[in-house]
Structure formats: C-alpha cells, structure tokens
C-alpha cells in the first residue's frame, strides 16, 4: 500500500497548477533567460538568443561551447519563448530543423521540466535556458527578462 501512496503523491505534484499563471485571467509569466552561477555569461541580447537557439552560433566569446536548452515543444513557456525570440512556434520550426539535420546541425537539447533545466545549468557552465521568472532561482543567474 505504501508504493501506491508514493505514486499518488508524485502524480498529484506533477499535475498541480503552478502559481498565479494557473488562473484563467492571470497574465503570462515573464520569461527569465538563465545561465548557471558558474557561467561566464553576464548578459545576452535577443539577437544572441536567436543565433544560439537556431544553432547558428555555437560558442561563447571566450570559446566555451554554448549549449542552448529547451523545454518540451508542448510546454507553454517554450511556445512563448519560440515566438518571441525565434519568431516561430516549435511546430513551425520542424522544417527548419529537418533542413539543418542534413547539414549536421542538431536542435537544442530538450529537458522535461524547469527543475531539470536548473539542474543542468548548475552543472554545465556553457548552458543557457529559459524559465518562468518565479522558477529562476537556486543555481541560476538571470541574464535577460522577456516581458509578456
């Protein structure tokens, strides 16, 4: 009976609404572009992000490999980030990545949750990702804020 309780607890945590954005009238959260605390990156521009997340730029100015990290394609924050930064939805980017595949370019890595993004950023100084502003804490440094 104990394993069932753990499963129900985990399932409840996985499907609970998060913060004020869960309400129908709540504005979308601001998007924090984040790096790990060990990263040399202190700021980025929208143009920098576009180049990094379209994999047209692969290194930071110091020569350290840049590792852009995405949330899953169906995550609402990814949808907004893609439209604001890349000018297209994740679905609209499929053909872009299909064409890049034959050039040997792969899309940014996808991590399943904000927690996974934070953990990866803490471990990899070259990584850059995005989170809802309220999730940008613990082992993250905000380098740009995208307003709704």
Entry summary:
The protein is an alpha/beta fold. Helices cover 34% and strands 17% of the residues.
What is the fold's blueprint, element by element?
Blueprint: H1 2-14, E1 31-36, H2 46-53, E2 67-70, H3 76-86, H4 94-101, E3 109-110, H5 114-123, E4 127-132, E5 140-146
Parallel strand pairs: 2-3, 2-4
Antiparallel strand pairs: 1-4, 1-5
Q: What does the model show?
A:
- By secondary structure, this protein is α/β, with parallel strands linked by helices.
- It has a single domain (25-146), classed as Periplasmic binding protein-like II (D-Maltodextrin-Binding Protein, domain 2, 3-Layer(aba) Sandwich), CATH 3.40.190.10.
- The protein has helices at residues 2-14, 46-53, 76-86, 94-101, 114-123, and strands at residues 31-36, 67-70, 109-110, 127-132, 140-146.
- The protein has a five-stranded mixed β-sheet with strand order 3-2-4-1-5.
- The protein is globular, with a radius of gyration of 16 Å.
- The relative contact order is 0.25.
Q: CATH first level: which class?
A: Alpha Beta
Strand content: 15-25%
**Uncertain residue ranges:** 1-22
Question: How confident overall, as mean pLDDT?
Answer: 86
Count every helix, treating DSSP H or I runs of 4 or more residues as helices. 5
Query: Based on the structure given, which CATH architecture is correct?
Result: 3-Layer(aba) Sandwich
Shape: globular
Structural class: alpha/beta
Order of helices and strands: HEHEHHEHEE
Terminal Cα separation, in Å?
45 Å
Look at the structure and name the CATH superfamily. Periplasmic binding protein-like II
Q: Biggest sheet, open or closed, and with what strands and sense?
A: 5 strands, mixed
Helix content: 25-40%
| The number of domains | 1
Number of strand segments? 5
């Amino acid at each position: 009976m104990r394993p069932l309780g753990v499963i129900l607890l985990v399932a409840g945590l996985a499907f609970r609404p998060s913060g004020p954005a869960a309400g129908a009238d709540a504005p979308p959260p601001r998007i924090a572009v984040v790096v790990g605390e060990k990263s040399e990156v202190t700021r980025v521009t929208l143009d920098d992000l576009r180049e990094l997340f379209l994999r047209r730029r692969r290194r930071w100015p110091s020569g350290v490999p840049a590792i852009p990290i995405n949330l899953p394609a169906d995550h609402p924050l990814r949808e907004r980030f893609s439209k604001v930064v890349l000018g297209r939805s994740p679905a609209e980017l499929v053909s872009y990545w299909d064409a890049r595949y034959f050039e040997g370019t792969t899309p940014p890595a996808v991590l399943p949750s904000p927690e996974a993004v934070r953990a990866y950023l803490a471990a990899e100084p070259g990584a850059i990702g995005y989170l809802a502003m309220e999730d940008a804490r613990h082992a993250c440094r905000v380098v740009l804020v995208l307003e709704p």
